[in-house]
Amino acid sequence: MFPCFFIRTSMLQLAPLEAVLFDVDGTLCDTDPLHYDAFREMLQEIGFNGGVPIDEEYFIANIAGKHNEDIASILFPDNHERGVKFLEDKEAMFRRLVKDKIEPVKGLYKLKKWIEDHGLKRAAVTNAPKKNAELMISLLGLTDFFEVVILGSDCEHAKPYPDPYLKALEILKVSKEHTCIFEDSVSGIKAGVAAGVKTFGLTTRNPAELLMKANPSLLIKDYEDSKLWSVLDELDNKAKA
């Protein structure tokens, strides 16, 4: 899938690494199943799709990783206002669910320690509503870890446009050449790539073949993936050279 020599050469260009940017949903925590359950239940209740529940394929293609304004237009093309109200109710349901069921992506705290030990700057960059993002980050104990949280709604364009990541680079005062991004959706990876930043794609839920269409620099299963730590070790070695 990725030639090893190409990966090594490409990733070594990150040195010296200055900053790490994270998406939130599906990247810090595996929340897509909660979003899927909330959409599936609430859409069926209002008779969407003739009352037939949406399946995971529909969720991945039309909802996962997208900004709520875009989702409203997809689900309710003839009544955007209704779509916006529906999504407000859906997000409230999600926040009730996530309080008891949030789980960090495997290896997250190991990577967090590595980032802290190396004194890197960091930001969370998300299409999630502010209340959702703040709640998830707080539940994961990462409120003090992130220097800034960038919302898609605070930018002219949300992901898949690069605006949120470009804003993070500007606020952190770091270069795109020495920053990396972790993302789990096609929309998010496209945003990172468009910003000119090397982007890791996590196959938390979305299939690898789908994420590959967005041209990530490297796909990893989670933060314990040996491919990730090989890159980080190489960066360490280069910094010491």
Automatic annotation (TrEMBL):
It comes from the Eukaryota. Its cofactor is Mg(2+). InterPro entries: Beta-PGM-like, HAD-like_sf, HAD-SF_hydro_IA, HAD_2, HAD_sf, PGP-like_dom2. SUPFAM superfamilies: HAD-like. Keywords: Magnesium, Metal-binding, Signal. The keyword Metal-binding applies. Residues 1-19 form the signal peptide. Gene3D superfamilies: HAD superfamily/HAD-like (3.40.50.1000), Putative phosphatase, domain 2 (1.10.150.240). The keyword Magnesium applies. One of its GO terms (molecular function) is metal ion binding. This is Beta-phosphoglucomutase. It comes from Salvia splendens (Scarlet sage).
